[in-house]
């Protein structure tokens, strides 16, 4: 294992372990859909990172960043989606959501959770900037960039999956109506504020 790869792992861990919109979304879906909900969000996020890896390696993300209108569209679309997800969580906090019995899968399903994770990551303009600026510093060839991107996505999947497991373990507590509504209010506010921050940043 080369020193460059170790340096990349250090940077990757610092970025991944810092809570952000993907973490908030994973927690939100883990509350409503249990461990499976959070894991499928994590899978969607990891898939989005792999897409950005290929785009960075092929030079597509650099072209996107060079085009200000395209970059702004991506940024505002991602911000709008975060605000939309936050609004849904805030709506659930106000209305209250019937608890999902242990062992049952909520109506949202795996596909919705996976989609939310994927679109959250693909719509995050900062991820495009991050992969475009980070990967070339540690790898010059396309295969090497892909290897780094796969490493980053795998660590992300493991970390967000851990969030899903921990939240699911607290399921009995989190299924209490008052606790669920409070958590929906917090995660909804966080997602909406992150969306506003992305739009204004």
First-last Cα distance: 37 Å
- Total domains: 1
Number of helices: 9
Q: Could you state the order of secondary-structure elements as H and E?
A: HHHHHHHHH
Low-confidence stretches: none
Strand composition percent:
under 5%
Give descriptors for this structure:
mainly alpha, 86% helix, globular, transmembrane helix, LysE family translocator
Short description:
The protein is an all-alpha fold. Helix content is 86%, strand content 0%. The longest helix has 38 residues.
Give your account of this protein's structure:
With 201 residues, the chain is an all-alpha fold. Helices cover 86% and strands 0% of the residues. It has 9 helices and no strands. The model has no long low-confidence stretch (mean pLDDT 79). The chain crosses the membrane at residues 40-65, 72-90, 144-170.
